[in-house]
Automatic annotation (TrEMBL):
Keywords: Cell membrane, Membrane, Transmembrane, Transmembrane helix, Transport
Transmembrane portions of the chain: 20-40, 60-89, 110-131, 137-164, 185-207, 236-254
Domain ABC transmembrane type-1, chain residue ranges per copy: 68-254
InterPro entries (alphabetical): AA_ABC_transptr_permease_3TM (IPR010065), ArtM/GltK/GlnP/TcyL/YhdX-like (IPR043429), MetI-like (IPR000515), MetI-like_sf (IPR035906)
The name this protein goes by in its record: Glutamate transport system permease protein
Family as reported in the entry's similarity comment: Belongs to the binding-protein-dependent transport system permease family.
PANTHER family referenced in this protein's UniProt entry, alphabetically: AMINO ACID ABC TRANSPORTER PERMEASE, MEMBRANE COMPONENT OF AMINO ACID ABC TRANSPORTER
SUPFAM superfamilies for the chain: MetI-like (SSF161098)
Annotated organism of origin: Nonomuraea jiangxiensis
Length: 264
C-alpha cells in the first residue's frame, strides 16, 4: 500500500523554509552542547583524573563487566518470558470463548496499569508474606519485566494479527484448517514481520527497565557500574556517560538486528 498521495512535496519556498529551520535547530543544539561542555569543564568533569579510571582493566572486571552481565542476564530472561507471556495472552484475548478472552484481557490491562517499579518492589518484599519464602533480586526483576512488558507485547501481538486482511483467515478456513492452525500457520507468521519494529522497541524498553533492579539491590550495570565506580573514584558524570554509551551501543545493535530480520 502506498501513501505517496498523502504527502505533498515542498516547493522552492518550502525547501528553503525547511533548510532554515534545520539550520536554526542545529545552531541551538550546538549552543546547548557547548554550554554543557563549558559547565562541565568549570566543574573539572573533563579532567584526566576522572576519566583515567574508566580505562583500567580492574575497573572493568570489578564493576562494568559484572554489571553488564547482570543487566543482560535479566534482559534476556525477561525477553524470552515476556515474549511467551505476550504470545499466550495476546492470542487468548482474540479467543471466541468469553471465559478465556475476558480473564486474559483483565490480566493484561492490570499489569499494563501497574508501574514496573511497584511490581519489582512487591515481588521482592512481598514474596515472603505471600509464598513464605524470600526470592532473589534477580527473580524479582525478571518477574516485573515479564508481567509488565509481556502485557504490552500481548497488545502488540493482538494488534498485529487484527491488522491482517480478513481474507487471510477466511481462505484458511475454506481449506479446512482449524482456528489453532489458522493462527499458528497463517496469521502469526505474517503478523510477526509487521510487529517486529514494535517488538524490538519494547525489548529495548525492557533492557533499559532492567536498571530499576537497583531498588532491590540487583547487581546490574547502573548500580554496579555507575554507583560503584562513582563511590570509589568520585567521577559520577564520566561514569554516567560511559554507562549511557554502553546502553546506546546495545540498543543500536538490537535495532540493526531488527532491520536485518525485517528485510528477510
Amino acid at each position: 500500500m502506498s501513501y505517496s498521495n498523502l504527502y505533498e512535496r515542498p516547493g522552492p519556498r518550502g525547501i528553503l523554509r525547511n533548510r532554515v529551520l534545520a539550520a536554526a535547530v542545529a545552531v541551538v543544539l550546538l549552543a546547548l552542547a557547548y554550554l554543557v561542555y563549558v559547565r562541565f569543564d568549570e566543574k573539572e568533569q573533563w579532567a584526566a583524573a576522572k576519566w583515567t579510571p574508566l580505562l583500567r582493566a580492574d575497573v572493568w572486571s570489578t564493576f562494568i563487566l559484572p554489571g553488564l552481565a547482570g543487566t543482560l542476564g535479566a534482559a534476556v530472561t525477561g525477553v524470552v518470558l515476556a515474549g511467551l507471556f505476550g504470545l499466550a495472552f495476546g492470542t487468548a484475548r482474540m479467543s471466541e470463548h468469553r471465559w478465556i478472552r475476558v480473564p486474559a484481557a483483565t490480566v493484561v490491562e492490570f499489569f499494563r496499569s501497574v508501574p514496573l517499579l511497584l511490581l519489582i518492589f512487591f515481588a521482592f518484599f512481598g514474596s515472603y508474606a505471600v509464598l513464605g519464602v524470600n526470592i532473589s533480586a534477580f527473580t524479582a526483576v525478571v518477574f516485573g519485566l515479564t508481567l509488565y512488558n509481556g502485557s504490552v507485547i500481548a497488545e502488540i501481538v493482538r494488534a498485529g494479527v487484527l491488522s491482517l486482511p480478513r481474507g487471510q483467515s477466511e481462505a484458511a478456513y475454506a481449506m479446512g484448517m482449524r482456528k489453532g492452525q489458522v493462527m499458528r500457520l497463517v496469521l502469526l507468521p505474517q503478523a510477526i514481520k509487521a510487529m517486529l519494529p514494535a517488538l524490538v522497541s519494547q525489548f529495548i524498553v525492557l533492557l533499559k527497565d532492567s536498571a530499576l533492579g537497583l531498588i532491590v539491590g540487583y547487581d546490574e550495570l547502573v548500580d554496579r557500574g555507575l554507583n560503584g565506580i562513582a563511590a570509589n573514584f568520585s567521577n559520577v558524570i564520566p561514569a554516567a556517560i560511559l554507562i549511557a554509551g554502553i546502553f546506546i551501543l546495545i540498543n543500536l545493535s538490537l535495532d540493526r538486528l531488527a532491520h536485518r530480520l525485517g528485510r528477510r
